[in-house]
Design a protein that fits this description.
This is Group II intron reverse transcriptase/maturase. This protein is an alpha+beta fold and about 450 residues long. The protein has 16 helices and 11 strands. The strands form 3 sheets. A 4-stranded mixed β-sheet has the order 2-1-4-5, with no helix packed on it. A 4-stranded antiparallel β-sheet has the order 6-7-3-8, sandwiched between helices. It has a 3-stranded antiparallel β-sheet with strand order 9-10-11. It is globular and about 70 Å long.
Length: about 450
């Protein structure tokens, strides 16, 4: 299976204009069984409530029937189960679509095939949900653009409800640039049109791709590759008088410009470009920010206290200076993200405070470790330490309410923490350490 996908990737790389005419046969029994084994068994179930363990009881028969339906073109995905999760930093809810387990198997295989084709087409400005690239890589490249290039203005942009507004007709038109297999495209279309089940009611979907589905990230990258990445590279940069760069992670992106006029022209053109593809710019979240080595001087000239900041991938970026007085960009955890995480932590401890303390402390230690793995980057340790302190205060408050009388004062609680210590933050990611795979971008 790896050899077949590798062959497709080589063809896609050697022939950028080649259209693939035979892909549906790759949804075979062997590959679908492998996808079944690779899927996690502890995820939420879809509308049919079937888990991985239940599907595995008659795995061979289920996979065989699935392959036959795919060959007969009678396979139809079930509607996704729509659930809502909290949106960090606000009272709004984010919709998620949870596919049924069998649909997850097919989606995983389709995503592998699409990745093998499009990974060679995607531009260096794209980092989201791509093999060998992650959020930290995007932050590292953005840091180089702001510190080492001529960046004086940043356009912090946001697309309003991107996953809910992807146009199906445009989506299929983009896929047809590289794929000319009607059977394969038909399956993708059926996933897009499968609809949702919400509170027992079926809802049709004439636009959008379910955020939460295994196929959604690659489809989002394909859509924005044509809508945004190619347009910025081929049209916007050539029209700019100065330097211009973009870093995109899924539907979040930041653009850096040397000149204010270039940034303003891009801001005006962006709304029209998105509207053409039935997307909308969130104007309240999209703004032009003076940012860079001259931002501090310009603020003083205008009577402002300090340069503006912007948030990207959970970090607030701000202008600062090194110990030698040279310009530097620093990052700290976004206040909105930290507050949302602390609220979630408080709710969990409040609900589980009467459980065994060893269970509670092990759970909090693992939670902190996961938090550190992402947020413990260069210049952010102090802010992460504040988060750890607030977690400690939450534990002190709610462990004291395990009974009617207080279990701890601070001295006893500190002794308790010696027995069940919480991990301390240390730098996990050096923002200035570029991997060799990223150096060629610059």
């Amino acid at each position: 299976m790896t050899t077949k996908l590798g062959g497709i990737a080589e063809l896609a790389k050697e022939n950028p204009k080649m259209k693939f005419t035979s892909l549906a046969h790759l949804l075979d029994e062997e590959s679908l069984k492998r996808c079944h084994f690779e899927l996690a068994g502890n995820k939420a179930t879809g509308v049919d409530q079937i888990t991985k363990a239940e599907y595995a009881k008659e795995r061979d028969q289920n996979i065989d029937e699935l392959v036959q339906r795919l060959k007969r073109k009678s396979y139809r995905p079930q509607p996704a189960k729509r659930v809502y999760i909290d949106k960090p930093g606000s009272n709004k809810k984010r919709p998620l679509g949870i596919p049924s387990y069998e649909d997850k198997i097919v989606q995983r295989r389709i995503a592998e095939i699409l990745n093998s084709i499009y990974e060679n087409d995607f531009l260096d400005s794209s980092f989201g949900f791509r093999p060998g690239r992650n959020c930290h890589d995007a932050l590292k490249i953005l840091n180089v653009y702001m510190e080492k290039r001529y960046t004086n203005y940043v356009v912090d942009a946001d697309i309003k409800g991107f996953f809910d507004n992807v146009d199906h007709n445009w989506m299929m038109a983009f896929l047809e640039h590289r794929i000319n297999d009607p059977s394969f495209l038909r399956i993708i279309t059926r996933f897009l049109k499968a609809g949702y089940m919400e509170e027992g009611k079926y809802l049709q979907s004439d636009k959008g791709t379910p955020q939460g589905g295994l196929i959604s990230p690659i489809l989002a990258n394909v859509y924005l590759h044509y809508v945004l990445d190619l347009w910025f590279e081929v049209v916007v940069r050539k029209q700019c008088k100065g330097q211009a760069y973009m870093v995109r992670y899924a539907d979040d992106f930041v653009c850096c410009f040397q000149y204010q006029r270039d940034a303003e022209n891009f801001y005006k053109a962006l709304g029209k470009r998105l509207k053409k593809f039935n997307l909308e710019m969130a104007e309240d979240k999209t703004k032009i920010i003076p940012f860079g080595r001259f931002a501090k001087e310009n603020c003083k000239r205008k009577g402002q206290s300090k340069p503006s900041t912007f948030d990207f991938l959970g970090f607030t970026h701000y202008c600062c200076e090194s110990r030698n007085g040279k310009f530097r960009v620093k990052r700290k955890t976004s206040r909105k993200k930290m507050q949302a995480k602390l609220t979630k932590c408080k709710e969990w401890v409040k609900i589980n405070r009467n459980k065994d303390v060893e269970f509670i402390m092990n759970r909090m230690s693992r939670s902190l470790t996961g938090y550190y793995n992402y947020y413990c980057i260069t210049d952010n340790i102090r802010t992460v330490d504040v988060y750890r302190y607030q977690v400690t205060r939450i534990l002190f408050k709610w462990l004291n309410r395990r009974s009617q009388k207080k279990s701890f004062d601070w001295d006893k609680f500190n002794l308790f923490l010696r027995k069940f210590p919480l991990p301390k933050p240390r730098v996990k990611v050096n923002i200035y350490n570029l991997r060799s795979e990223l150096s060629y971008i610059l």
